[in-house]
Every structure is written in C-alpha cells, then in structure tokens.
Write a structure and sequence with these properties.
alpha+beta, 107 residues
Length: 107
C-alpha cells in the first residue's frame, strides 16, 4: 500500500444492501485462500470515536470473476489468520486481544 496516494479504501455491501467503507490494512494469501484485514471508516467523527476499533477479517472468494468478501466460517482458520494479521500489524498498531469469555481486553 503506497502512503504517497493515501489509504486504500474498500466499499462493502452487507446482506441488506447497505454500503460500508473500510480501510484495507493488510492482505495475505495462503495455499487455500486470500484474506484481508479491514478497519471501519466513518463519515462522522463521532461514529469513529464510538467505534471499538475491532479489526474485521474476511476471506476473499472469486464469484463469477468478481472478488467477494465473506466471513471465515471455520473457527480454527479464523484464529490462525487473525494471529497472522495481529503479528504483522502489531508493529504499526496497538492490538489488544480479548480473553476466552470475550469480556476483558488483554494487551
């Protein structure tokens, strides 16, 4: 990603047809698939302040020659890919993980 030209933004349509903007932070390709790490982008500053800063990790699948972003269904695959992104992005961002119960952030 070239910082000379600014952030890479991606528009995603949800199941209800609503468009959401994300900043593409990183992308990886494995033997099985491609994955992206995204961060929500908001038009209003107040929305950004209220956001929890959670990284969105999706799988990139080819559907009729077009890239489609879908949730990662397999928990083990998600955990593996999330770990790779966390390691790669920890150099640039402060990343907190959530404990087993999903209640308390752990640095």
């Amino acid at each position: 990603m070239s910082e000379e030209y600014g952030n890479d933004l991606v528009s995603v349509l949800d199941d209800e047809g609503n468009e959401h903007q994300f900043e593409l932070l990183d992308a990886i390709e494995t033997d099985e698939s491609r994955y992206v790490a995204l961060l929500p982008v908001y038009p209003e500053a107040e929305q950004a302040i209220d956001d929890d800063g959670e990284l969105v990790i999706l799988e990139v699948v080819d559907q009729d020659g077009e890239d489609l972003l879908v949730p990662i269904e397999d928990d083990d695959t998600f955990d593996e890919i999330a770990g790779i992104f966390e390691e790669r992005l920890s150099e640039y961002y402060e990343i907190n993980t959530v404990d087993e119960e999903g209640d308390n952030p752990v640095s």
